[in-house]
């Protein structure tokens, strides 16, 4: 889950963001093309909003004519362009993701991050469930082979809670205001539509590093 060499590429995500889900579907191809692995960093989007004074589109688009419809159109274009066939809008959106994001930190500590990551996104944006309902969450994750009791128990540890808060604060301190956010070393990019720029920055920094090695 770390980038090769000195290049550090991070994907800051919250399961409640449909755009984070869509971005995650494209990252493996970028990793293959560039040979650079992304570090997946769980953050609490609600915490970021509180720390920055930002709010979700569901809130700030209220009463604004046409903009919401256009953002939906842009998302549909993105999905078609990249051939994403799995995405379904969650009828329970927005979903409180505090437990899910603590679970991501806990799953990482337990060595089961990837199965947990895929399972939660599956039940958020592929077969949508009301994942802030504890009973629904348990049933959904168990159906995907996740040891829910183990993850929930670990997520109650103070170290897990504090780590999620620290990752969220660090994201804001570095300039983040939403999800998905990407960092290529110190360069920040926001939104799924910036993935092309993320890839270009990775390639540019790889080229600069290679040129530096040759010159030394």
Structure, explained:
Strand 3 (181-184) and strand 4 form a beta hairpin. This protein is 58% helix and 8% strand. Strands 2-1-3-4 form a 4-stranded mixed sheet, sandwiched between helices. The protein has a domain at 9-97 and 159-215: Glutaredoxin (3-Layer(aba) Sandwich), CATH 3.40.30.10. It is α+β, with helices and mostly antiparallel strands and 216 residues long. The protein is built from 10 helices and 4 strands.
Question: Helix and strand layout, with pairings?
Answer:
Layout: E1 9-13, H1 18-34, E2 38-42, H2 45-52, H3 57-60, H4 67-81, H5 98-110, H6 113-125, H7 134-143, H8 148-155, H9 158-173, E3 181-184, E4 187-190, H10 195-215
Parallel strand pairs: 1-2
Antiparallel strand pairs: 1-3, 3-4
Helix pairs in contact: 1-10, 2-9, 5-6, 5-8, 5-9
CATH homologous superfamily of one domain, by name? Glutaredoxin
Principal-axis shape: globular
Structural class: alpha+beta
Q: What is the H/E order? A: EHEHHHHHHHHEEH
Helix content: 55-70%
Mean pLDDT: 93
Strand order of the largest sheet: 2-1-3-4
Number of strands: 4
